[in-house]
Each structure stands twice: as structure tokens, then as C-alpha cells.
Amino acid sequence: MVRYEVPNVNEHMSFLEMLDVLNESLIAKGEDPVAFDHDCREGICGMCGFMINGKAHGGFKGTTVCQLHMRKFKDGDELYLEPWRARAFPVIKDLAVNRVSFDRIIAAGGFITAPTGSAPDGNAIQVPKRDADLAMDAAACIGCGACVAACPNAAAALFVGAKISHLGHLPQGQVERDRRALAMVQQMNREGFANCTNIGECEAACPKQIKLEVIAFNNHDYIKAAFTERPETAVAGEG
Ligand code: SF4
Ligand code: FES
Fold this sequence. Notes:
elongated, 5 strands
């Protein structure tokens, strides 16, 4: 750990703006800035994220670090910042970790195969309201990785469950539903993420408030696909 003092912080700054101020002063002194990931700074891209005092994104409900403001802290507070800790998220530098393992899980099956071309009519495929709501709730996942960092097992079940639940609730996602669940869970295991043991830290840490129910949806789809339709691909303990 390295100790920095940041004297010129005001309550309107976001947490990342506070780090910008720190980094400007470090650069002016010829020192290395603190590395951290960010992009949109609006809570929608999923690039930001690290532990603040042992809590993913600082532990404030439904809040990414880019949307966390310094008024949530008191003048003189000591804050301990650490990167996500998980074997599947190797540290690049300081607070930045490599989350390409998430990209490989998506590439394994987190999509629908559809012809490109002009946009289809919005009402061409009707979706029941309840399914549309459940799909939209799951689609809120921004892939930040806080769920993995918060989980004592470093499980990616909430992330994978959100992606499988998103597409699995829509008519367009039905054709590849079994293959998707198999491929994504198997890739999750290959990446070194552990399994869910129902602790629930992921749900508590998720800045998009993804619910544990997506893991049940994922388990249903995986078990149905692996043990019923393609038993030769089933691996005990997966999912
Ligand atoms: S489920 Fe939540 S915590 Fe996990 S990657 Fe998605 S948005 Fe981040
Ligand atoms: S920088 Fe995009 S979600 Fe925080």
C-alpha cells in the first residue's frame, strides 16, 4: 500500500475526479499516477471499479465508483483502495485489472445469431410484458466485475446469470438457449471462476442491483441443457 494525501477535495467531486486531482499532483511532481480504469463516468460502461475500504465500488447501494461523490465521506477519512481480487482478473497495475475473461465468456455464447440489415419493426415479435421486464432487468448488467470481487469464491455466477437471463427471456434468444448456457458456463469454469455457494455478496455489491434469481435461471438452463439434451457434455459440479 502507498499512502497519498489529497488536500484539495470538495464534496461535489466524484471519486474518480478525486483520483484525477491526485494524479495531476503526482505527475507534476514527476511521480507515477495511480492507474485505474474508467470510460463513460456515467455508470453505464462497466469500466470503473475497485475496492474502497474492502467494499466493491465503495459499498453504496446501486452506485459505481464513477457515480460516487466525495460528500459520502468525511474530511480526514482514510480510504484503502485495492483492485478487484480474483484469479481470473489479473492485476495490470495499481487499481486496473484485466477482465478479458468476461469478454471470452460473452464470445462463447452471450449473443443471438441474427442476420444484419435494416432494423426489424419494433412490434414484429411480441414479448409478454413480464418477460420484457425480466430481460430488461438482467440487461442492466454492465460487466464491471464487482460481483466477482465481492464473492468469497470469486464466482462469476451473477454476471453469467444476468447475460443468460437477459437473452433467455426473449423470443429471439430461444433458438440458441441450450447451447448458450452450456458454452458460457463451461467458459466460466475454464477462466478460473469458482461456483456459486449462495452467499449473496454479489447481489449486495452489484451497482446495477442484479438479483440472485438470475443465477437460478442460469442453473435451470445449464442443468436442462447439460443433463437432458447433451449428457455427454455434462461435468459434475459445473453451473
Ligand atoms: S452482475 Fe452487477 S456486479 Fe456483476 S458484472 Fe454485472 S453489473 Fe457488475
Ligand atoms: S466509468 Fe463507465 S461505469 Fe464507471
